Amino acid sequence: MIxxxxxxxxxxxxxxxxxxxxxxxxxxxxxxxRITDQKAHEAxxxxxxxxxxxxxxxxxxxxxxxxxxxxxxVDALLQAAVYAGVEGEEEIELLRKVVAIGKKNLGPKAFxxxxxxxxxxxxxxxxxxxxxxxxxxxxxxGRLDEAMAEYQAMLELxxxxxxxxxxxxxxxxxxxxxxADARKLFEKYPEECEFNAVFAWGRVLERFLAxxxxxxxxxxxxxxxxxxHMQVFVKGHRQLPRLLPxxxxxxxxxxxxxxxxxxxxxxxxxxAALKWLETQKVK
Length: 283
Description:
The longest helix is centred in the middle third of the chain and has 19 residues, at 88-106. The protein is an all-alpha fold. The radius of gyration is 21 Å and the shape is elongated. Helix content is 67%, strand content 0%.
């Protein structure tokens, strides 16, 4: 739904409407021609400037300029979607179209040449950012199968996972009891349990769901060592702050806060696991 009324939206001349955004995207999806590389570069530089803008007004003005030069600039479209205030199904519809624009901008050749190290090529990053936004919107909407398909496709393109989509994928797999796929993810990133709270605490849940309680108990000890701050969030004993930290270090309270939402969602799907966790005393 649109968060702002038409009356309020009219007070901001830079605020795009959802309809206008969709019409613009549809128009560019139907076109065969593309602007020059120089114009595309100029628009992208304006987006980078917008990310560093001192005020919201300056940011919006720079995004508007970028779209005037290149209406198919993916990063600018993503930011315009924020300004439009869309959520739920409308956001998912819009993000699907932005991803399609990004795919068209890159062309089929890029997906063959860059696959396996996709993020390493700067021109692919707007597309990957858009796809991650889509996956997250699907996850939040409870459309987990679709979200997982997006995450898994991104990992195929970029196994190094510079964006950290594996930290959202693993909880989704655990929510749906897809333990074999979860184990494949642990095998693909074998050191993560030592350095990341999602994998450390996700391993505990996976072992419990698999019925291996001795291994689950050992995993609890490892998870507490990796991040001792996470357990109160997993159990639901502490609420998340309204604003998440901008950065974190492994094992820190900030790390726990950043990942508590996705982990809590996975554990809350399995009340028996939470009840069992309550019995695990610190040794």
